[in-house]
Amino acid sequence: MSPLSRRAVVGAAATALLTGCGGPRAARPAASPGARRSASRESAAPRPSGAAPVRLLVPAIGVDTPVLRLGLAADGTVEVPPVTAHDRAGWYRYSPPPGQVGPSVILGHVTVGPYGDGVFRHLARLRRDDGITARLEDGRTAAFAVREVRTVAKADFPADEVYGDVDRPELRLITCGGPRTGDGYPANVIVFAALRAAGP
């Protein structure tokens, strides 16, 4: 798959994933027919090489969470972290693992229905140079520094900036944002981070 096609697929997938962020419907996000077709093509693509993340630490906002692997549901929509009392973040496994070249994408809920706050409830409080560490399944770590935190309307999701090709390891943390309404949240909070160090 070409870089452009992969970027379009991942962008559509993660945008769909966050459509119902935080509410009971988050487990079955709506996706357009085009997004479903793209997701179906992605399911046949090879997964990126490298060790998957198993834990994410963001000390500035008190996050210390296991990391699930997210893929595609049977109906072609994107999987999301389950809405449970023990909320966890999820890595979209068709993005590069943290520490590999490209934008690694980790998503989480801001709220989890009847269980209250989600693991990324304070994501918007992060500031430039705050640290983020991903622990990988091979025992190594990848440490990142926040470059930017942005809240954008879902209708204006900056897919090219979030998922576009980059020549170094980067990380994106994504959740919902803005004032909650009966339909969920109108915006996304996006954290852009760059690799600071990798090692054992």
UniProtKB/TrEMBL annotation:
Work out whether the entry's keyword set contains Transferase: no
Q: Which Gene3D superfamilies match?
A: Sortase (2.40.260.10)
One family name in Pfam for this protein? Sortase
User: Among its keywords, does the record have NADP?
Assistant: no
The domain of life is Bacteria
Species per Swiss-Prot/TrEMBL record: Streptomyces longwoodensis
UniProt keyword annotations, A-Z: Hydrolase
Return the annotated region ranges for Disordered.
21-50
UniProt protein name: Peptidase C60 sortase A and B
Question: What InterPro entries does this protein's entry cite?
Answer: Sortase, Sortase_dom-sf, Sortase_F, TAT_signal
GO MF annotation list:
hydrolase activity
